[in-house]
Amino acid sequence: MSYVAIADRDHEQEHHDPQTFITKYIWSQDHKVIAVQYGLTAIFVGLIALGLSAMMRLQLGFPDEFTFINPENYYQFITMHGMIMVIYLLTALFLGGFGNYLIPLMVGSRDMVFPYLNMLSYWVYLLSVIILVVSFFVPGGSTGAGWTLYPPQAIMAGTPGVDLGIILMLVSLAVFIVAFTMGGLNYITTVLQARCKGMTLMRMPLSVWGIFTATVLGLLAFPALLVSAIMMLLDKTLMTSFFMPAISSMGTDPGYTGGSPILFQHLFWFFGHPEVYIVALPAFGIVSDLLSTHARKNIFGYRMMVWAIIAIGGLSFVVWAHHMYVSGMNPYFGFFFATTTLIIAVPTAIKVYNWVLTLWEGNIHLRVPMLFAIGFIFTFIHGGLTGLFLGNVTIDLPLSDTYFVVAHFHMVMGVSPILVVFGAIYHWWPKITGKMYNETLGKWHFWMTFLGTYAIYLPMHYLGFAGVPRRYFAMGNTEFLPESAQDLNAAITISALFVACTQILFFANMIWSLWKGPKSDPNPWDATTLEWQTPDHPPKHGNWGHELPVVHRWAYDYSVPGHEEDFIPQNVSADDAPAGREHGGEHAIVATKEHK
Amino acid sequence: MSEAVLEHGAKTPGREALVEDWSRDKQVFGVPWGKAMMWIFLLSDTFIFSCFLVGYMMVRISTTDPWPNPSEVFALDAFGVPVPLLLIAIMTFILITSSGTMALAVNMGYRKDRKKTFWLMVATAVLGASFVGMQAFEWTKLISEGVRPWGNPFGAAQFGSSFFMITGFHGMHVTAGVIYLLVVAFRVKNGFYERRGGNYEIVEIAGLYWHFVDLVWVFIFAFFYLW
Ligand code: HEM
Ligand SMILES: [Cu+2]
């Protein structure tokens, strides 16, 4: 008995529209509401992390001025800042936020396949955030182990937050992973199994490809983090010795014996490196769609872009030990991981070329989302190039644990994805809220953020070369550092505070838009993808009214010759518009030829 | 007229069919959502267990104390003679038998024989529960002999740590599976799925999970008791 696809079943799936405020906005099973809940929560914790970075910068820029920041606090700030930014902000925002909002709308489905599970995913995520925030207030404070949580120091006396802080951190991570798994299973199944008629995999917008692949990475990488969190919890609470070698702590023997700290590093980075791409791939996908839409041109090399995403995703599982060059590994090991790391640069470079070629001779509209997308190309190339340096063992050894590394990862996985997040919010804001924002204010926001982040991170490369170590509370009298390093640090701090403050422009713009902003057009950017073709604007529960859309073409039919408008939505059939430029999918070509 | 919409159904054999399946619209696999999701979940869970087992191997290799001899530690006294691996052989046998009853239940489910499906699922759950019970017995025995997560009289401390952690994690999977099976079994019995179009795929989905848990046990068994 063959199974009938949902899209083919004749009986309409019934939709009980939620009535009360609570079922509509709080206990909602609508993917769009869940997306907004995820987004707001993630941005809220992100603001905490931003505040923490401001505190760190104050200390680094003006070492003796702020007596309320002591070394213990500083470590706690660093740790929570890094952890929140990477996991609770970016992962949650890209997958829980944009993934939830975009996947069903872009593939033409009514919702995620299991809405109830999807709702649970958000509430469990919220629980993990609450546990995280609580850890700031327990006795001893939150953990100060660094976001990498390396044992033995993470659970040994002397590290801040070594009692409850680290326990809550690990529990919160485990809870987050449960939440992510519930959501992730939904996203993958929806993409694979619930697309509308005509929506082949090779017609999906790249945003969906990026989010989909990132989710697969998450489901395969988070297990390693879960396992290491469980093991470390046991080491901490039951005195097992998975990661703890025989060690003496402040003259006493804590009773550990024979464990392997390196095992933790392997497990952590087996998760940690794919995590970089969990954050980057959705950004890659979204930025491709922004560039194509606002340049009024099809994305260059769509199929190549898809395969590059998949190749990067696959390769990201075999490079993890490039974070461990300084752990004293066998040179052949280092050789292997350096090679795989440099190989990843190939599909990544293909993507960058294709973005640039998409802009080539395009009809570029420098609207706010486009500015952010182009800004991303700059910062990403920048961070990518320094990555090539750090991927080589011999260059990494002296640079590891200096500010060069801080500059690198902030360019590539801090600033770049954040620029895409902003671009994406500006781009889809009219669809989500039905309102327009203020364009001028948005442009100011872009330029100040973009130039400001360069002012922060460019000088950090020099600090790194000069040998300024990472995760240091203060330099003290370090002989090899010139006096001017401190001046540079002060300048960086001023830029950082400036950038932090300019984010007010963003929030002001959005609040103004909600409150007084003009109503937006249902398709203000003349975009082709399905989410802009919904019968209601903003889309209602169930997304498509009575009938699911039918897709006739790929997502990138911009400026097709012979058509009066410069875009053809995906659900416009070949009878009503030229066949377009879809070179993907043999079927499609055959079908179009038949039509002619 | 809408030729641009892809039509499917014509199956070509071999590689082309694979490409066709993967590149068609609507869905990649001709299976219900729940089943697809279960497969993906199990893939993720495989990674969890793999990480546990790899971690166990690594601590076993890196610890400096000698590893306890499994055929002595896991021996059970039968009529006054210690028989190595006796208990564990019985446990493994029970779990594998339960996979058999589960497979029969799936078959009966597709034949819509609700009564037999129900009883076979209950039998599976009972076998699973007795597995957990025997595991509890084994834990008690080891604990009474002085094995603790942080140390034991037989050798490397990591022996107890990884044993309790991994069999505990697996035992939780079995326990969850028993509950899951019972819920589905009673729903089969009281006609819950009749009211939803008489679709018994859910029995197979529960079965997938159950077989997976069994399969994982085979690996745990091999790595802990035979190495
Ligand atoms: C204006 C924005 C930001 C500023 C001013 C900032 C500043 C800092 C500073 C001063 C450190 C400590 C460096 C050290 O001494 O080792 C740091 C660490 C870190 N930041 Fe940021 N950051 C910002 C945004 C982000 C974003 C968006 C991410 C997301 C990926 C991020 C991820 C990290 C990570 C992973 C660490 C390492 C934490 C650790 O060493 O455990 N940061 N940041
Ligand atoms: Cu990496």
The computed structural class of chain B is mainly alpha
Which shape of chain B, going by the Cα principal axes? globular
Number of strands of chain B: 2
Report the strand count of chain A.
Answer: 0
Q: Give the oligomeric state of the chains in this entry, treating copies of one chain as homo and distinct chains as hetero.
A: heterodimer
Unreliable parts of chain B: 1-11
Helix content of chain A: 55-70%
Structural class of chain A: mainly alpha
Order of helices and strands of chain A: HHHHHHHHHHHHHHH
CATH topology of the largest domain in chain B: Four Helix Bundle (Hemerythrin (Met), subunit A)
- Give the count of structural domains of chain B: 2
Task: Write a structural description.
The complex is a heterodimer of chains A (596) and B (227). With 596 residues, chain A is mainly alpha-helical. Among the domains of chain A are: 22-189, no CATH class; 366-520, no CATH class; 532-596, no CATH class. Chain A has helices spanning 21-26, 31-61, 71-107, 115-134, 164-193, 206-237, 261-295, 302-315, 331-359, 368-391, 393-399, 403-433, 439-466, 484-516, 586-595. In chain A, helix 6 (206-237) packs antiparallel against helix 7 (261-295) and helix 7 packs across helix 12. Chain A is globular, with a radius of gyration of 25 Å. Mean pLDDT of chain A is 91; it is low at 10-14 and 584-596. By secondary structure, chain B is mainly alpha-helical. A two-stranded antiparallel ribbon of chain B has the order 1-2. In chain B, helix 2 (33-62) packs antiparallel against helix 6 (157-189). The longest helix of chain B is centred in the C-terminal third of the chain and has 33 residues, at 157-189. Residues 1-11 of chain B have low confidence and may be disordered. Chains A and B meet through helix 5, helix 6, helix 7 and helix 15 of A and helix 2 and helix 6 of B. The structure holds protoporphyrin IX containing FE and copper (II) ion.
